[in-house]
Amino acid sequence: MAKVVINPRIRGFICTTAHPGGCAANVQKQIAVATAGGSRNEQGKGLGNVLVVGSSAGYGLASTITALFGYGAKVLSVAFERPGTGEKAGSGGWYNLAEVHRAAKAQGKTIETIIGDAFSAPITAQAIAALQARFGKIDTFIYSLASPKRTDPVTGITHSSVLKPIGPTYTSQTIDLDTDQIKPITIAPANEDEIANTVKVMGGEDWERWIKALAEAELLAPGFRTVAYSYIGPQITYAVYRKGTIGAAKDHLEATALRLSRDLKAAFGGGAWVSVNKALVTQASSAIPVVPLYTSILYKVMKENGTHEGTIEQIVRLFAEQIGPGKTPQVDEAGRIRIDDREMRAPVQAAVDQIWQTITSENLLDVSDYKSFKQEFRTLFGFEVAGIDYTVPTEVEVPLV
């Protein structure tokens, strides 16, 4: 196994390299937050078996860490990641999970990870076999998949999602992540096929498929709970996001949650919920037009008023206040958990809107936190992390111990 110097290769919202040491340091920071949060919950106990599908980055990774280190759960994680081979670096998600595994082993905690396409029937079957053999019934199932494509395991048809408005053509401003310049953007509306395909990829169909498979295998514990993640966002992004193709998929996800919750309550005394989370820097969110600019402004406003939360803080609060042991989820009029509450406060949105009206390429760094946006994007892949010497060769073949 060779050690190599790993440099970031970034274009727009795509990074094709990742640094093992930087990813490990990021995970350690999240473990510290989750451990501190869990210490208030029966000394970090309270959950038995937890399944996290989409466990390697963003909210899925934070959920894995919170359940494992905050609540002492045994976690089965499912993710589609790439290990490092030879001199070629693996994916950021692989290195994230490698550090979670290493830390869990050091602390005597239990995590297993299945690597593969979570949309596929064989991976679901593999997860069920692992649960039956080494875990038993699960208390909590977190569904956190984000993908541009999904192959339907029944029909074999591959569906692709699009980021488009429904109805009128959308015109706004966005930021070019390569040039750091604000520019106008116009997006043509989606057709019916594009809407339907986006719903197939990002709606609730696969979440429901997983739950049915788990139920048929008799793997749902009494009081079983499941949560999928979503976003609503402000008026600024509404036309392209919540009222666009992604919004149609999220509407389907929420309708699925209501139906699942009725069935799960009747059968197990449990439930299903969609948790609406705040805007954060993720690879998926960075790909959505307008959202990086909005997020940069939001970060500045929320940091200045002391309400900003990162991914791990959001999920620790979700477990502590809503879905952890002994908690009853508090929902809005549509049955959704809202941990975007601090983002959507009227004073926050008014401040964001005021900046939005006056922001330019020239004042971008002064009136927004775009500098942090760029830095946080790089840290997703282990770069620009304090304490890491990126000139030192590092081993790319890091196992899931």
What does this structure look like?
Helix content is 43%, strand content 17%. With 401 residues, the chain is an alpha/beta fold. The protein has a single domain (9-165, 199-289, 308-341, 380-395), classed as Rossmann fold (3-Layer(aba) Sandwich). Strand 10 (170-176) and strand 11 form a beta hairpin. The radius of gyration is 21 Å and the shape is globular. The relative contact order is 0.17. Residues 39-44 have low confidence and may be disordered.
Question: How many alpha or pi helices?
Answer: 14
How many β-strand stretches?
15
Distance between the termini: 17 Å
Gyration radius, to the nearest Å?
A: 21 Å
| CATH architectural label | 3-Layer(aba) Sandwich
Percent strand: 15-25%
- As a percent range, the share of helical residues equals 40-55%
SSE pattern, N- to C-terminal: EEEHEHEHEHEEEEEHHEHHEHHHEHHHE
> Kindly state the mean pLDDT as a whole number?
94
Structural class: alpha/beta
CATH topology: Rossmann fold
Largest sheet, in brief, is:
7 strands, parallel
Descriptive keywords:
single chain; alpha/beta; Rossmann fold; 7-stranded parallel β-sheet; two-stranded antiparallel ribbon; 15 strands; 17% strand
Topology:
Blueprint: E1 3-4, E2 10-11, E3 14-15, H1 20-38, E4 49-53, H2 58-71, E5 74-79, H3 92-106, E6 111-115, H4 121-135, E7 138-143, E8 149-151, E9 158-160, E10 170-176, E11 181-187, H5 192-202, H6 205-216, E12 220-230, H7 235-238, H8 245-268, E13 271-276, H9 283-286, H10 291-304, H11 311-323, E14 337-338, H12 346-358, H13 364-367, H14 370-379, E15 394-395
Helix pairs in contact: 1-2, 1-3, 1-11, 2-3, 2-11, 5-8, 10-12, 10-14
